[in-house]
TrEMBL record, chains A, B:
Belongs to the class-III pyridoxal-phosphate-dependent aminotransferase family. Keywords: Aminotransferase, Pyridoxal phosphate, Transferase. It is an enzyme of class 2 (transferase). This is (S)-3-amino-2-methylpropionate transaminase. Its EC number is 2.6.1.19, 2.6.1.22. It comes from Daphnia sinensis. CDD domains: OAT_like. One of its GO terms (molecular function) is 4-aminobutyrate:2-oxoglutarate transaminase activity. GO terms for biological process: gamma-aminobutyric acid catabolic process. Its cofactor is pyridoxal 5'-phosphate. Pfam families: Aminotran_3. Coiled coil: none annotated. GO terms for cellular component: mitochondrion.
Amino acid sequence: MWRKILNSFNSVKCSAHNPSLLANNVKYLSSFVSGEPTGPLVKTAIPGPRSLAMLSEMKKIQISDAVQLFADYSKSIGNYLYDVDGNILLDVYTQISSIPLGYNHPELLDVLQDKENIRTFINRPALGVFPGENYPQRVQNSLLRIAPKGHTEVTTMACGSCSNENAYKAIFVWYRRKQRGDKSYTPEEETSCVMNQLPGVSDLTLLSFKGAFHGRTFGTLITTHTKPVHKLDIPTKDWPIGTFPRYKYPLEEFVRENEEEDRRCLAEVEELFDRYNKRGKTVAGVVIEPIQSEGGDHHASPAFFQELQRIAKKNGAALLIDEVQTGGGTTGEFWCHDHFNLDHPVDIVTYSKKMLIGGYFSLPEFRPREGYRIFNTWMGEPSKVILLEKVVEIIKRDKLIENVRVTGDVLLNGLKDFGKRYPNVVKNVRGRGTFCAFDCVSMAKRDQLVEQLKVEGIQSGGAGPVAVRLRPSLVFQPHHASIFLDRLEKALKKMD
Amino acid sequence: MWRKILNSFNSVKCSAHNPSLLANNVKYLSSFVSGEPTGPLVKTAIPGPRSLAMLSEMKKIQISDAVQLFADYSKSIGNYLYDVDGNILLDVYTQISSIPLGYNHPELLDVLQDKENIRTFINRPALGVFPGENYPQRVQNSLLRIAPKGHTEVTTMACGSCSNENAYKAIFVWYRRKQRGDKSYTPEEETSCVMNQLPGVSDLTLLSFKGAFHGRTFGTLITTHTKPVHKLDIPTKDWPIGTFPRYKYPLEEFVRENEEEDRRCLAEVEELFDRYNKRGKTVAGVVIEPIQSEGGDHHASPAFFQELQRIAKKNGAALLIDEVQTGGGTTGEFWCHDHFNLDHPVDIVTYSKKMLIGGYFSLPEFRPREGYRIFNTWMGEPSKVILLEKVVEIIKRDKLIENVRVTGDVLLNGLKDFGKRYPNVVKNVRGRGTFCAFDCVSMAKRDQLVEQLKVEGIQSGGAGPVAVRLRPSLVFQPHHASIFLDRLEKALKKMD
């Protein structure tokens, strides 16, 4: 089916401006962001000479080994990232999955034409102490408009790591309050905690998973288990680490094996609860991504998550779902865990990236009883809430989640077809919405493919040791998917 | 002397618009930000009815126990914070010390009139991977233009906690590289670290001080020792905690006692190095504020810091000076440690708040050898760099550090005079530049004074158990200090 759509697009030279030959089920007849080019354009090696000159300046200032190119954010538009050498890349990576509506969406530019809004951008308050006029209403119009099921409370933070750090703290505070009952802190607790001593501090733990990524600050890093480069040399703690399922693909051919994998991983979680609880390192919560992203785009079944929630509840532990990368609509639901049909609302859901602001949604029992327990100077930023308000309005109005579903079908079916036709390069195709990935046979082959894709005008990214991850924006449409698949096939042919 | 200035101001009704009677040494004859009112105006109890209505909305969404009022950031101007009930407060707290040039500085508003700049505000890149055109130049024009002595490298982060978290990581990475010499990581290190095990992770520690505040995320919280509310229930680590000097005031009357206090604290630092190093919890660095701010505005002498740096060097440990609150000019030097006449540049200096963006300056040996060791999605934000570029330009052009020195003299002398005349309320007056504080006899009295100041139209804040801290912006001038002292005296009279 995707081939039909792809062919129809190819026949109009992938032009967003002449989409009359679209297949019937593709509802969006032009780009959501006007002014996009008709396709990528690669003029130089990437990074090109101007990028390299800027890079040499940047290297004088700081480590810059991860820099791929210098972008021209004035010219970048919609799904297209322009670089300073005049190259135009179709961007399916979107700043590590953090651009919801593509570049320079005209209605976001308009937000900053409003004089009142401009004042919000330059007068950054200490939000927890001196919030601005109508701030609660702004939060209602943005974050709470897309709150996960069962959630009416939200805390804002400046970035993804801080979102998880503070959500972890909220879990520990909640857990100890359950233990204390109605009693207040003892004087001994108050004195000892300041000097990092029990009983004021706790020996509680959080259970995380192999291959998980929750951030690089000290608390989140305890629960991150992707690459040595994040972890080497940094002091940490002994918290339980479970196994996130590793499925065999295609899923429909390995139903029994993958169910067995779920059972094995869940039994291990139960065993870890027992072991750590008995050792006095009580497990206060379970922290998990709905799709392990940085770790290599590993999926787990709804049944796995349902049972995990039951195990956490049975043990009196919180379940935190980290939607920093998966949240915001690109899985075809606003929150990826909406796919899981869970028994109960998730205790805590963290967000950042495409939400423009960080933070977490939490059930009412996770609200601390005292001010300043979850606090910092900025607590996020109202200017981001204003932008998010507009983003959410556009997502609803333009039915962008529906667009993700339609486009995701094109993308995933296209990748599956390549999986059959280029089995030596494209393996284990998987995805929800446009949040898709596939594996290569080795890290070297994966890195080579990502480079080759750039030569073909595609900005993509790796995930884990061998995966290519696709993280297009919400305005990535079937005709963009078509261009991507076309370019990917060109790259694959050069790999074979 | 300050009385003379104060009287001259009182005689012109504290008007910034008729400053002709200013004392000779007050060089600035009008406000740096035009459009300021002539003084505070209090119409309602604070929080007033509109603030209370918004607060009740906010309480539905999140914990709001620290909220003092809802501000009108459209009307707020210069040193004056307007609230939604029409109250006008002279702000000597500035959003927990995070507003460099007061509210709505016209030249900061102009930054957002520029169409190119607007695009920087809505296209937030993953700075470590896809920086924008001329970003290195922007960093040169802003952060590196005011780099601490001996520093040419800078890393950007989104907030103060992340600045310290990542600076701590840079210290651990640096220390272990020294230990390894030219050897690379062993396969065992690479495998073990991902599972939170030695030898890949480390048992290194950082030495912090009682009363220190470096943040509330897990790593920084290990080194924060202010209030139980920050620390209770949160798992932590056993790292060495020294004693920050507690001086007797006035300093000139207790020279011998305070020198003895320095010696005692430094001897304890040496002892902690020995004890932790022997236990295999090697101290990789010392983390300290140049003035303990959140902990209660505790100062230490230049001699203390000089010797502390020598002790760190002798032990092969890094010295990190946390200038998140003290940096940016309000101590009368751009960096507070500029007052200390240290033997060597400081290894790492962290910043945030009035710098608008977080991050750290570090000497070249603290640069990791591999990309992604110090990394996150956003790595700060270019829009903040653009604003900071303008802020730095204005600080230099308007000689705002000089203004801080002149105004600080007025403020500190005024407070010292109150210390003599209201000795039951104003104790231990201290400060550098306008970064001033004094103690009350108890927390209850301090809280009462901060409330009474609000009734008089002054927004101030507490620090530690008994201190009132003053954190005016860089555009706080002698005539503002005069108004503040006048209102403070009114409040003091009601306290006696």
